[in-house]
């Protein structure tokens, strides 16, 4: 069974299939923040979305990180390590991309278990 949450004009924010939760790309609203600040804002959004789907960051399976400034990876990693306990860290890829929306430094896509 597929369950969809938070409908938008071009996608649903959350899609559940069985015991797996998929959350589409999240970006910060405040683009004036540095990489760490944007990551912290994304993680706060992600916590709420995971809760909406009946799960939590402790059940993350995979995180794909798209960064428009690979040189700021340390700022992202700092926020990441503050947000997650070492035992709960999922598999992750950190990819450099040539462009995101204006002043967007990072976008995060996640998969979690229920």
TrEMBL record:
InterPro entries the UniProt entry points to: RutC-like_sf (IPR035959), YjgF/YER057c/UK114 (IPR006175), YoaB-like (IPR035709)
Pfam family, one: Ribonuc_L-PSP
Superkingdom of origin organism: Bacteria
Stated name of the protein: Endoribonuclease L-PSP
Origin species: Donghicola eburneus
């Amino acid at each position: 069974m597929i369950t969809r949450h938070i409908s938008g004009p071009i996608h649903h924010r959350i899609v559940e299939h069985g015991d797996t939760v998929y959350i589409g790309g999240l970006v910060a609203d405040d683009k004036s923040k540095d990489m760490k600040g944007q990551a912290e804002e994304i993680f706060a959004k992600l916590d709420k979305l995971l809760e909406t789907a009946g799960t939590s960051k402790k059940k993350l399976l995979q995180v794909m990180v798209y960064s428009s400034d690979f040189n700021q990876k340390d700022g992202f990693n700092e926020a990441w390590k503050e947000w997650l306990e070492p035992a709960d860290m999922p598999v992750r890829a950190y990819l450099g991309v040539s462009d995101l929306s204006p002043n967007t430094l990072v976008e995060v896509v996640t998969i979690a278990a229920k």
